[in-house]
Amino acid sequence: FVGADALTLGLTLDKVVAKQVFLGEGIPTAEFFSTDNPDDAETLNTIGYPLIVKTRHEGSSKGITEESKVNNLEELKKRIRFVVENYNQPALVEKFISGQEFTIAVLGNGEEAQAMPVVQTSINGQKDFEDKVYTNRNIYDGSVKYLCPAPVSAELTKTLQNLAVQVFRAVDCRDLARVDFRVDKKGQPYVLEINPLPSFDVEDVFHLFPKCFGASFEETIKLILNLALKRYNLIDKNFPIFYQQELMA
Fold it and tell me: Is the pLDDT of residue 136 over 80?
């Protein structure tokens, strides 16, 4: 089959375990702690404020609302309680990173994995999120737009692409994935998460980046399928994969 195996899917769905892997590989990610007890929050919080409180095991920004960003102990306890009671799992509490958000598709396997063009996320036309939170509602209300390629420096582009590939390899992804970042005011990138089962929605990243190469979504699907076939040795390792030269240059 195409994509990551069960071990990688399980690892990346647990954001705490994934972040521990990132840190072990020297990959920058926001400071964090996890708890299912609001009364432990004061002791566990050695980070300071503001913080963002997330579910530990969900995707698609589930559980993320404007109230997820907290600025004091009372708000922190309330939000941890919300996650535990509504999602039946521990809360992941992270240092809130104010800045810009980016996402990058990665294609390939092992040493041949390559990052695609950097895509910038905007909400209601605003590229710098500042103190705003990217919520679950934003995904579905049409306020999220993607800029591809991202209007950023060549240096930042290269840094993000290198990190995306490093993350991809660290959790042993296969064939395809999407890596999300926040970049703070000083230009420091932080990995938010990796999604080994990325969306193929018509307005999402996997429909956008092929246009940078003059390719179609259908050609991209063929490319991904051929990457998997090559991994299983079902096609010759030198088989010319669809628009591989352009994508993998």
Answer: no
Cβ proximity of 65 and 135 under 8 Å: yes
Superfamily for domain range 32-95: ATP-grasp fold, A domain (3.30.1490.20)
Flag the least confident range among 99-103, 141-145, 242-246: 242-246
> Could you tell me if 16 and 32 are in contact, meaning their C-beta atoms sit under 8 angstroms apart?
yes
For 224-239, the pLDDT digits (tens) are 999 999 999 998 766 6
Amino acid in the structure at residue 39:
D
Q: Give percent of the chain with pLDDT exceeding 90.
A: 69
Give the pLDDT mean for 63-84: 96
Contact, 55 vs 36, CB < 8 A? no
**Fold assignment, 6-13+98-247:** D-amino Acid Aminotransferase; Chain A, domain 1 (3.30.470)
- State the pLDDT at residue 140: 65
For 137, the enclosing helix (H) or strand (E) is: helix 136-140
| Entry pTM | 0.90
Query: What is the DSSP track for 181-223?
Result: EEEETTS-EEEEEEESS----TTSHHHHGGGGGT--HHHHHHH
Contacts of 227 (CB under 8 A, 6+ apart): 2, 107, 108, 109, 175, 176, 241
- HSE (side-chain half, CA atoms, 13 Å) at 93: 33
If one counts every other C-beta atom within 10 angstroms of the C-beta of residue 153, the result is 10
Do 18 and 194 touch, CB atoms closer than 8 A?
yes
Q: Is 147 helix (H, G, I), strand (E, B) or coil?
A: strand
Residue type at 8 in one-letter notation: T
